[in-house]
Amino acid sequence: MTSPSQAAIAGAETPDPDGVGLTSEPSGGQEPAKDQLVGRSPGQLMWMRFKRDRTGVVSAFVVLTMFAIAALAPVISWLYGKDPWTRYGQIEPGLLNDNGYPVKPNGGIDGEYWFGLEPGLGRDVLTQLVYGMRTSLSLAVIITILSVLLAIVIGVAGGYMGGKTDYFLGRLTDLMMSFPNQLFFVAFVPVVGALVVSPQDEMPTWLRASVLIFVMWLLGWMTLARLLRGQVLTLREREFVEAAKVAGTPPWRIIRKELLPNVVTPILVQSTYMLPNFVTAVAGLSFLGVGMPASTPDWGRMFATGAEVYQSNITYMFFPGVAMVVFIVAFNLLGDSVRDAFDPKSGR
Amino acid sequence: MRTARVSVVGLAAGALILTGCSSGGGGDAGDVSKDDAAKQQVRYDFGDAAASKGPAEPVKGAKKGGDLTVYQRDSYAHLDPAQMYVSDEGTMSTLIHRRLTSYKRDSAGKYTVVGDLATDSGQASKDQRTWKYTLKDGIKWEDGSPITSKDIRHTFERQFAPFISEGPVFIQQWMAGKSGTGYRKLLPDGPYKGDHLPDKVLETPDDKTVIFHFKDPQPDLPYALGMAGYAAVQEKGDTKEKYDKKPVSSGPYKIASFKSGKSMKLVRNEEWDAKTDPVRHAYPDAHNIQFGVSYEASTKRLVSDSAENQTAVSYTNQVDASSMQSVRSDPKVKDRSLSGYQPYVGKISLNMDRLKDKKVREAIAHALPAQSLVQAFGGSGGGELAGNYLSPTVAGHTESDPYGKVENPQGDVKKAKRILKEAGKTGQKLTFAFQNSPEWQDYSIAAKDNLTKAGFDVQLKDIVADTYYDQIGKVKNKYDMYHSSWGADWPSAGTVIPPTLDGRQVQDGASNYSHYNNPEMNKEMDRISKIKDPDTAAKEWGKLADKILKEDLPDVPLMYYKQIQLYGSKVGGAVNNAVISSIDPTQLYVKK
């Protein structure tokens, strides 16, 4: 949260000629250093504002915890003594009933299987979930990083160079935007499979993951690229850029030193929106049965299974569902807070 | 905007949390077991004239009148009997098409092959090369004209016409004495250009008599004549290709309207005389069939039992695997359910061209977990562990279990590992192709798990459901193992063993998916198919099936398919008919 008074003060400041934004501002709390002007970098300022935003801090904590859980999946599995591949319910009699559903209430939750058992195959839900999160989150992080990088290249190039380059890059962006990515993916995977994999072999998991990353990356960078192009387009005409040009600064340096630092805010904010989107998109593909292969634990496929068994065992949907909702909400709130912290003027 | 978004998400989360409890599945073992199998595992006797007399044994408490709503997943692609080979078409056809013979089920669940249009199940000559049928009196088409031997002759002659391509070909092949499609040369254009079958093949000396002459003994003819594909077609009303949309009815119902893919209405055929029919009833005034109702949807509707669903039923829709638990754990719904066997046996075919070492095949057989497949199909309501190739619905079925598939439902990985090691093939690559459906996807995970533990390098290959059988049906396919299922056309193993295990039939698209070819066994098949006594033949088939399984192991048997079907609370007379493997539509009535 940014208090209105502070926003008003901030708004009254004049940006410095170097264009990096506000270099000075009354320090964080209104109380202690009211009259003192202290020099602070924008990063420090952002961090101070962010720390004051309770929602932001809480959601950041939640998000980090989720990432930690995902990253530590093997450790959790080791401590807990189960793995996501063993079919406990099928191998140990008495866990699943004749119809393949857990015998115990609430999806078979007990001291042994904390989150219950998967109907049918009888795998452990807790380890499935943490490993599934690991799969989904690592895919989403990789896709986000690649998409952001490509978006920066295309967006900044288009915005800075203008003219024909801009025109063609803009049309390319439009073209890519018109592809429905789920359909594209459904159509794309078998083609790659037939081209690369021998008909006797299974498509290896890494290849499947690479194809998934490639397609999502290919179709995921456009929004940010457009945004950056617009930003760069306005920045290009600003005095400090013109000054740099007049001084004979090479374009590459202008982009690096003058333009990029000014678009850090949209990049960061946009990527905090993109990442949860990719998580849901990857989950959506798995839900449709075209995501990762069936033996890899996957968050999205847990929803597909949950949708199949919800009539008799709603509990199965509960843990992956709550985890997903909490993650997406927390990440979106975090994104909002980051934006507010960077740019307190942007209204609400 | 933001607050709105958060609250919506919050609501969803709340809903999830509120509903996140469920009762336990309980340990209920379920209801269908071998008792039903025993009931269904009967010899289908050939009935005499007395058994073939109408009317059919009345259904207890049945009343005439009322309309029945019927939910069906698939529309009927064919209404012309000669084009019918798909089982749900066959089920419906019992209402509109009569044949020379039919299967009668008595109230004790015993089946007899009786004369339907004919006065008995057939009079065979001693060598069983000649079969004589006499038509009943008072049998009529829906237009009131009598059904004569001319119509029967026409029925069989048009089976040779080029446009008839989907139906069964047994009798045509027997008439021509040829396997494969060679029978078509006997009457290339059907009866439409004035040619007819010679008297030495099919004889109709008068209006009431039909005599078949075959080159080889055909002890199974009465079974074959009971297939939907050999139901009678009216010569006068035959419109060739168009007959497929508007056939002339001989059964208790006729087609009032048929909108392909949407609906079909069957109304009473007034010309049908119950006194001539030993099998069928016509209690409801009409059957209103709706197409495009998925298994899941029909299950939900019939479980709800609300207003119009009380008088609803489905001939062939089953309870889907994921609803199995809710159906079987609710006693009220369970009371309105029927369970029974389907004729299919689920097997893993081992490609004999690629897996030449029997030890390797043995290791696979021991490693595969059969229970996982049953579970994938919804537990014991969807299937039962199989020990051998012959389903309990086929005469000659035994409980033999040479590879311990029933004894060790999870597979014996240790034994498999040992055998594979002995063979020196540990680490062998094994490509397992499977249909890309939830059931087989689930099973592939379990199978891969066990096979990997046994020491194989398993490569899973999922194949789109539509083209699955085309892909594995190619003789030169690149897969080591794949699942296949086969059901008997009539309850004789003669329609199971030769089609799936006769090595002379190996060709693209043939049902011998393992490419098994053992001349010794082929000869044995020829010998058994000429045995006249059905009981002896059944026993011999059983022995041969077990011998092939034990000695050569071309397929690993895993599961006998089963199904559960539901009907509304105001529907009476619902029984599972083992011959059509579904609810018998001719016995249904609407309760008042």
From TrEMBL, chain A:
It is found in: Cell membrane. Pfam families: BPD_transp_1 (PF00528), OppC_N (PF12911). GO terms for cellular component: plasma membrane. Residues 1-38 are annotated as: Disordered. Keywords: Cell membrane, Membrane, Transmembrane, Transmembrane helix, Transport. It is a multi-pass membrane protein. CDD domains: TM_PBP2 (cd06261). GO terms for biological process: transmembrane transport. It comes from the Bacteria. Residues 133-335 form the ABC transmembrane type-1 domain. The chain crosses the membrane at residues 56-80, 137-162, 183-200, 206-228, 275-294, 314-335. PANTHER family: D,D-DIPEPTIDE TRANSPORT SYSTEM PERMEASE PROTEIN DDPC-RELATED, OLIGOPEPTIDE TRANSPORT SYSTEM PERMEASE PROTEIN APPC. Belongs to the binding-protein-dependent transport system permease family. This is ABC transporter permease.
